[in-house]
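[Discussion] Sanity-checking designs against the backbone

I'm trying to build intuition for which residues belong where. Below is a structure token string of 359 positions. I'd appreciate it if someone posts a full sequence so I can compare it with mine line by line.
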């Protein structure tokens, strides 16, 4: 029998404070599923478009069951996601919440964040077993909410910052893109970053690479829907052996830390770049020390790292498992160790840091 060591003096107020904090955590965990539900069923959009609604009115607008919608609205009101008007029995969505929950063009758009979190929780039993064995779980092994949510979370940030801030921060890259160069987007996923760049710089040629065939299939569908005039294609290939030489620009968005052998990938990028080429690395925002990351963003990223990033790396050869909170120093060590002579931080947001590497 395991004996739990009790402190000599127990503070009942601190104990109950922790219990109530735990209650809040459980409510937040359950609300992840409710946010994804509200997004998928159009409940938030209906509230944003129509203004204050009763459960019956919201159910009618969305073709859903009033009884379920009433409970959902109560939970949303208790969590501060919607406002409740006792006098009228109506619920409303504030302007700020409407942007965060319905506007996919806003960098503050959140449903994708909740969707990838829900998918991670759904897959957590498999991760728990991997913790016992030390084995990995590949990106391809996760439920669709992980893949879809990942893109939906990061895509608004790319649309807000990539063309207007991140690429211009790279030395001499934008004029090259405007004239026409060859670009490889490695670890492209569903192709959101690749297609954004291709639409913005039609004189350049883009190819997206990812080892996950399902993601590449989705990216190809997106490319076909983009229409003519966009020079982009997508191929299945791992980061350490994607084809092609003399790329003027190689990009990696939120994926280097997921790789089993990021050092091998970095060496391959160096070989694939033109002599005056540039490697842009976008990574999750993180400080070098654990204490630098003990904040809400770091908490979320450490959790994702436990459930997604670290298992993904451990499923591959080498399995270095940098983790989502690797920090600039470790990324620099990987890049410089691969033979790059230049490395610098060029941009950052609350969620990302952008690095430039030069041969």
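Best answer:
Here's mine. Compare freely.
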């Amino acid at each position: 029998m395991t004996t739990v060591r009790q402190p000599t003096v127990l503070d009942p107020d601190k104990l109950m404070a922790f219990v109530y904090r735990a209650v809040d955590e459980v409510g937040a965990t359950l609300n992840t599923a409710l946010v994804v539900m509200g997004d998928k069923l159009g409940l938030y959009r209906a509230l944003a478009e129509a203004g204050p609604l009763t459960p019956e009115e919201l159910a009618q607008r969305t073709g859903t069951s009033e009884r379920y919608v009433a409970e959902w609205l109560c939970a949303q009101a208790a969590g501060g996601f919607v406002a409740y008007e006792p006098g009228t029995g109506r619920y409303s969505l504030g302007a700020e919440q409407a942007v965060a929950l319905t506007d996919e063009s806003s960098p503050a758009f959140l449903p994708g964040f909740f969707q990838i979190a829900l998918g991670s929780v759904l897959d957590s039993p498999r991760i728990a077993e991997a913790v016992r064995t030390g084995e990995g779980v590949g990106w391809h092994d996760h439920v669709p909410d992980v893949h879809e949510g990942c893109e939906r979370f990061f895509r608004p940030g790319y649309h807000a910052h990539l063309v207007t801030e991140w690429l211009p921060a790279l030395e001499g890259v934008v004029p090259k893109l405007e004239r026409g160069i060859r670009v490889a987007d490695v670890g492209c996923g569903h192709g959101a970053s690749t297609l954004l760049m291709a639409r913005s710089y039609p004189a350049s040629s883009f190819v997206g690479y990812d080892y996950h065939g399902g993601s590449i299939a989705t990216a190809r569908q997106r490319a076909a829907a983009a229409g003519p005039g966009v020079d982009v294609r997508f191929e299945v290939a791992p980061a350490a052996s994607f084809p092609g030489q003399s790329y003027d620009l190689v990009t990696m968005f939120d994926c280097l830390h997921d790789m089993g052998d990021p050092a091998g990938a970095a060496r391959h990028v160096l070989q694939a770049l033109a002599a005056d080429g540039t490697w842009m690395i976008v990574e999750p925002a993180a400080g070098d020390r654990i204490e630098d990351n003990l904040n809400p963003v770091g908490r979320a990223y450490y959790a994702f790292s436990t459930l997604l990033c670290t298992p993904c790396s451990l499923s591959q050869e080498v399995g270095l498992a940098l983790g989502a909170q690797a920090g600039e120093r470790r990324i620099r060590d990987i890049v410089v160790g691969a033979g790059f002579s230049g490395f610098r931080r060029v941009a950052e947001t609350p969620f990302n840091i952008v690095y430039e590497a030069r041969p």
